Amino acid sequence: QVQLVESGGGLVQAGGSLRLSCAASGRTFIRFTVGWFRQAPGKERDFVATIIQSGGTTYYADSVKGRFTISRDTVKNTVYLQMNSLKPEDTAVYYCAAGTGWGTLLATSDYAYWGQGTQVTVSS
Known about the structure:
Layout: E1 3-7, E2 10-13, E3 18-25, E4 33-39, E5 45-51, E6 58-60, E7 68-73, E8 78-83, E9 92-99, E10 113-114, E11 118-123
Parallel strand pairs: 2-11
Antiparallel strand pairs: 1-3, 3-8, 4-5, 4-9, 5-6, 7-8, 9-10, 9-11
C-alpha cells in the first residue's frame, strides 16, 4: 500500500513554470513506476509522463515533450514534474499515480494508487 499526496499546483501565466511534487508514504517509491496524468474539465484523464521503477527511464506524451521533466528523489521519496513554457491548454487537474508493472505504463488502468490531484491553471 502507498499513499500519494500532490502539491505545487496554482495559477501561472502562459510561458511560466511550475513544479509539482508527489510525496509517497507507506512504501518506497523506487519499487514503483510513477506517472503523472492530467484531466481537463469534460475530458478524459490523459497520460503526461512516467518514470520507470529501478532504472528511472522516463517517457513523455508528445504534447509535453521538451517542456516537462519528471524526476525522482529517492531520499525524499518524492517524484517531481517540472513544467516549463506552460500553455493555456496545459490547464487541468494533475494527478500522480504509482504502479507495480514493468515497462512503460501509459494507461490509467496500469496504476493502482492515485493521489487526490492538484489544479494547474495557465492564463493566456
